């Protein structure tokens, strides 16, 4: 087996990214580190593979990153973390936003062309077959999406959503609404299923509220959903994300409905929980960690490592927007 | 004078980006459009310059974009619009976030290397001398920053900030506070000066509140500023941006202070005005237009056009968070 960056890193007692950087951006490291790494590379017969050579020549010294919506705080956080991690490895990030359109995703991958050595895809809606075709051409890592055979980083919010349902059931809630995000994202399906399944297991009722139009934005979607929520008879709602949950809080406030007295509200992704009044019970998504992990996974693929999938834990953080049924 | 893309576009009756695309991504256009454009290019003797040739070979078919904070909604909106405009021209966007550090900006420009044909810099804090050095090496367009000799796109929020002060003075306010953003951004200086100067012209008092730490984020900064605001004796506050203004509203709500009854609040950039209760009076920054204009300016520079500066108008939008002094 050919020596990889990882072998060199282990022997030198440094990180893989330090080894990578010793070849690509030696001026960023202490001279003695560069000397040790290059000596060990020679010793173990490390030869950069074509993609790794791209790192050195600069032809593939970029990570491609495709996200559905650059103006969403959630994806902006992911981009920011991925870009910071890539920079540590001496790489730039070539980014494209697709507005969730599968067509645009394929275009963006083609457009990156030889400028990127691999692509991180946050692709909530592209078909699995299409993703597999993309992954056949170049290293691909998926974020918050699982497709057999393609390495991925997934934040496991479903388990925390189940914990939220447990919290609500413990508080005496017997009917829990789920307010979806727009357009059938993969993670939306996971969260919806978690609410339904956990409610069924606990013998309480789940109600899935109608989707709203993506173009409105999450906050406006949440405001708009309030009449349906009130009509549903649910005393608690789990929203697809914090932006939507914040909109629900705003709409309930406008309607004079007490939170959590009459309706308890749970968000997801923990992007603006502390900006809400009452402060929002939410699920910490750690999307920054996911962005960093995705870059690491992609760099390791480019070094010839086998693909693997990373599952990051998520956690329910209970704040002020949830309480016992009928507390108000 | 050599023929430029613009000449070809005018003769062919199509946009500059269509001409650009006819050379770089002909498969995206109707075959008859490509045929007409290339025929006219031959006719007028259009020869792509080295950078434009890069467009065709793909070596410089990217726009570099540097923003201080990728996780801010304001810059995410700019990135999204720039990226959409670049895609129309068959270009990718290579993006870097710098957390506002001038060091990182220079690194990012170096790192883009030959992969970009020009750079759009949202550089609120880098020195003018440094920006000039960057612009000497390659086409550079600044956003919301003016440096003599470098083309720029500026959203003229200062005029709208003056209009906000007029509104407040008309409502009987005699002491107006300005709540700065962190770290002395160029646009912060513009807005601060506008408040001070307009107050002086109207014979009312301006108070500049202390800055807060950038790491906290705008909303938390706004919440934190509330005790100082109350202590200042001001009956109205203009905040550097909407995130900060939203935090002020939250903090005033926590303190039981009526808005606009006791304190009127004005935001800037209009990024989350409708999500606030009361709905925030704010200044529409049109940052999407700025992102698009910056890409167009950069593409025209790369086609050999002379640099120019674009000033986009901003507008005060009066909503519920402002009212006459002492209305409550």
TrEMBL record, chains A, B:
Keyword Transcription regulation recorded: yes
Native source species: Mangrovactinospora gilvigrisea
Metal-binding listed as a keyword: no
Gene3D superfamilies: 3.40.50.2300, lambda repressor-like DNA-binding domains
Coiled-coil regions, chain positions: none
Domain HTH lacI-type: 3-57
Tree of life domain: Bacteria
Keywords: DNA-binding, Transcription, Transcription regulation
Name by which UniProt lists this protein: HTH lacI-type domain-containing protein
A molecular function GO annotation: transcription cis-regulatory region binding
PANTHER family referenced in this protein's UniProt entry, alphabetically: LACI-RELATED TRANSCRIPTIONAL REPRESSOR, TRANSCRIPTIONAL REGULATORY PROTEIN
InterPro entries: HTH_LacI, LacI/GalR-like_sensor, Lambda_DNA-bd_dom_sf, Peripla_BP_I
């Amino acid at each position: 087996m050919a020596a990889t960056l990882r072998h060199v890193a282990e022997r030198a007692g440094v990180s893989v990214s330090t080894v990578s950087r010793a070849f690509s951006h030696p001026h960023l490291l202490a001279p003695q580190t560069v000397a040790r790494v290059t000596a060990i590379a020679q010793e173990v017969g490390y030869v950069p593979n074509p993609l790794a050579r791209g790192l050195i020549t600069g032809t593939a010294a970029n990570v491609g990153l495709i996200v559905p919506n650059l103006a969403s705080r959630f994806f902006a956080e992911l981009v920011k973390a991925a870009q910071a991690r890539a920079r540590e490895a001496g790489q730039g990030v070539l980014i494209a936003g697709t507005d969730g359109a599968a067509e645009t995703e394929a275009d963006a991958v083609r457009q990156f062309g030889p400028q990127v050595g691999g692509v991180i895809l946050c692709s909530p809606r592209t078909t699995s077959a299409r993703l597999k075709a993309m992954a056949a051409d170049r290293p691909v890592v998926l974020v918050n999406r699982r497709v057999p055979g393609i390495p991925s980083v997934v934040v496991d919010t479903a388990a925390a959503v189940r914990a939220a349902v447990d919290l609500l059931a413990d508080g005496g809630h017997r009917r829990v609404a789920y307010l979806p995000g727009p357009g059938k994202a993969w993670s939306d399906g996971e969260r919806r299923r978690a609410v339904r399944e956990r409610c069924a297991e606990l013998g309480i009722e789940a109600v899935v509220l109608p989707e709203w139009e993506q173009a409105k934005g999450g906050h406006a979607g949440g405001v708009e959903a309030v009449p349906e929520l009130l009509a549903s008879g649910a005393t608690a709602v789990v929203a697809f994300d914090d932006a939507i949950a914040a909109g629900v809080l705003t709409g309930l406030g406008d309607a004079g409905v007490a939170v959590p007295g009459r309706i308890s509200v749970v968000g997801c992704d923990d992007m603006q929980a502390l900006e809400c009044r009452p402060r929002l019970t939410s699920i910490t998504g750690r999307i920054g960690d996911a962005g960093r992990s995705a870059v690491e996974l992609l760099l390791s693929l480019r070094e010839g490592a086998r693909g693997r999938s990373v599952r990051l834990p998520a956690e329910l953080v209970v704040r002020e927007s949830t309480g016992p049924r009928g507390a108000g």
